């Protein structure tokens, strides 16, 4: 498995980013960052399809994070978005995925901070199972084919999914679905 890192993030000065991070409340997450926020319906597989969940989706400035021609199945590419220190992974799963982009709908991107307590998931992609994990802190593993849902472990929330757009050969990050660890938690202190 090969990995490389792309520094892709919105061009924003650090002080402004820090202010966002420290002041972000649930309400502000919906409204801040120049982001247009929508509620996106997320379908579930099988018997759960009858009751779709609604996940928070925040749009951020569109940033190119890769290209179809360079992306190889099972070879994750790290990138930062929407801020310089928010670490994510872009991967071509080889199987159709929820929220997947590209001709086969198998290209997805997820944040790499565990939503349980922020454990680092960097470098834990398992191509045999299209899963990220286990988290080094409490062993949660996430299903990248199903919106980052928990497969097993102590986390109760799905991994935040990076919303992608494909135009020609270019892959862009355009938003975040879910709350990145730390960016919501910081808020409670300020509320
Ligand atoms: S921080 Fe990842 S499972 Fe607890």
Please write out the topology.
Blueprint: E1 4-6, H1 14-23, H2 26-31, E2 37-42, E3 53-67, E4 77-80, E5 87-92, E6 107-111, E7 125-126, E8 131-132, E9 141-143, E10 149-152, E11 161-167, E12 170-177, H3 185-190
Parallel strand pairs: 1-4
Antiparallel strand pairs: 2-3, 3-12, 4-5, 5-6, 7-8, 8-9, 9-10, 11-12
FE2/S2 (inorganic) cluster (FES) is lined by residues 114, 116-117, 119, 135, 137-138, 140, 153-155.
Radius of gyration: 16 Å
CATH topology: Rieske Iron-sulfur Protein
Helix content: 10-25%
Order of helices and strands: EHHEEEEEEEEEEEH
* Amino- and carboxy-terminal Cα gap: 43 Å
| Strand order of the biggest β-sheet | 1-4-5-6
Q: Give the CA-based shape.
A: globular
Question: Briefly, what CATH class?
Answer: Mainly Beta
By secondary-structure content and strand pairing, the structural class works out as mainly beta
Annotation, overall tally of beta strands: 12
| CATH architectural label | 3-layer Sandwich
Beta-strand portion reads: 25-35%
CATH homologous group name: Rieske [2Fe-2S] iron-sulphur domain
For the report, how would you describe the main beta sheet?
Answer: 4 strands, mixed
Helices, by number, come to 3
Mean pLDDT: 80
List of distinct ligands in this structure: FE2/S2 (inorganic) cluster
**Low-confidence runs (pLDDT<50, min 5 residues)?**
22-44, 185-191
Q: How many separate structural domains?
A: 1
């Amino acid at each position: 498995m090969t990995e490389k890192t792309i520094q892709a993030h919105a061009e924003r000065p650090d002080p402004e980013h820090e202010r966002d991070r420290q002041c972000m409340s649930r309400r502000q997450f919906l409204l801040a960052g120049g982001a247009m926020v929508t509620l996106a319906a997320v379908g579930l597989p099988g018997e759960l399809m009858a009751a779709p969940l609604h996940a928070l989706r925040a749009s951020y400035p569109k940033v190119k994070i890769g290209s179809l021609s360079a992306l190889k199945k099972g070879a994750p590419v790290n990138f930062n978005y929407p801020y310089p220190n928010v670490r994510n992974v872009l991967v071509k799963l080889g199987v159709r995925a929820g929220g997947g982009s590209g001709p086969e709908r198998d290209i997805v991107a997820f944040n790499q901070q565990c939503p349980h307590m922020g454990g680092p998931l960097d470098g834990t992609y398992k191509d045999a199972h299209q899963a990220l994990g286990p988290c080094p802190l409490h062993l949660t593993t996430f299903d990248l084919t199903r919106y980052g849902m928990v497969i097993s472990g102590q986390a109760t929330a799905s991994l935040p999914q990076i919303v992608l757009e494909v135009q020609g050969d270019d892959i862009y990050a355009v938003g975040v679905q879910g709350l990145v660890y730390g960016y919501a938690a910081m808020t409670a202190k300020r509320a």
